[in-house]
Amino acid sequence: MRRLPAALAGGAVTLSVTTRLHRRPPTHPRWRRPNYRDREVTLAAGPALAAGVGAAALLTGAPGAAAAAGLAAGLGLYDDLYGDSHARGLRGHLDALRQGRLTTGVVKLVGLAGTGLAVATLDGARGVDAAAEAALVAGCANLVNLLDLRPGRALKVTGLTGLALALGPGRSGRVATGLTGAALTVLPADLGETAMLGDCGANAAGAALGWCLAAGLPRRARAAAFAAVVALTLASERVSFSAVIERTPWLRAVDGWGRRP
């Protein structure tokens, strides 16, 4: 399947699921939550994006990418609907665990690690390649979720990275194109603050990006990508991404593009 059909498939399935969820939205109050400005929005964008990415991956002959997005989305949705908001960040969840409290965040982190290993096994990766794929799938799923603190931010990172990876060879380039199509489809609703990705959508997008990095990059580049993911994840425990973006003019401009005043 060529790149343009992959992008169209990702966008079309995402749009179809989004339209259906808006016409018949889930009635449970857990499907709605306040955003950073205390404006109530729906979590429908997450499952819609995950469905679009999964469909595009399957159509391009990449079941591993589809599994990565689907499993990560399921773990994220579990955290969205049943999560403990009192524990924040990796340190917060580990502190809760030391106190004898198992948070949904810890369950999700362990599940993402298992997802990475399962996807690597499904793809037939072995040894160092399997470890790299598992680490990138899990690490990127977590990192994109950490970035999803303002409308459009995680989707802009996903879309721009997906566009770069779309230039890559074979299935990784086609999956990245499908991911970009799905991300662009839900971007207006996210920027307009009528819907948000939640952990479901952010984890799905990140896991798919991690799969594309693992499938499309040579070993040294994969190692560099994973090092960057780890560095950013650890930095998030000490530094506010939002504060850094606000202090950096060009990042602030890109981050704020299209967002409601």
Q: What does this 3D model show about the protein?
A:
This protein is an all-alpha fold and 261 residues long. A two-stranded antiparallel sheet has the order 1-2. It has one domain (3-256). Strand 1 (32-34) and strand 2 form a beta hairpin. The termini are far apart. Helix 1 (3-23) packs parallel to helix 8, helix 3 (63-82) packs antiparallel against helix 9 (198-216) and helix 6 (127-147) runs antiparallel to helix 9. The protein has twelve helices and two strands.
Tell me the count of domains: 1
If you compute it from the alpha carbons, what radius of gyration comes out, rounded to the nearest whole angstrom? 17 Å
Cα end-to-end separation: 40 Å
Structural class: mainly alpha
Number of strands: 2
Strand content: under 5%
Q: How can the largest sheet be summarized?
A: 2 strands, antiparallel
Assign a percent range to the helix content: over 70%
Global shape: globular
- What is the arithmetic mean of pLDDT? 87
The ordered H/E elements are HEEHHHHHHHHHHH
Q: Which stretches are poorly predicted, pLDDT < 50 over at least 5 residues? A: none
> Helix segment count?
12
Question: What spatial order of strands do you see in the largest sheet?
Answer: 1-2
Brief account:
It is built from twelve helices and two strands. The chain has 261 residues and is mainly alpha-helical. A hairpin with a 5-residue loop joins strand 1 and strand 2.
Note the topology.
Blueprint: H1 3-23, E1 32-34, E2 40-42, H2 45-59, H3 63-82, H4 89-98, H5 104-122, H6 127-147, H7 153-165, H8 170-191, H9 198-216, H10 219-236, H11 241-247, H12 249-256
Antiparallel strand pairs: 1-2
Helix pairs in contact: 1-2, 1-8, 2-3, 2-8, 2-9, 3-5, 3-9, 5-6, 6-7, 6-9, 6-10, 7-8, 7-9, 8-9
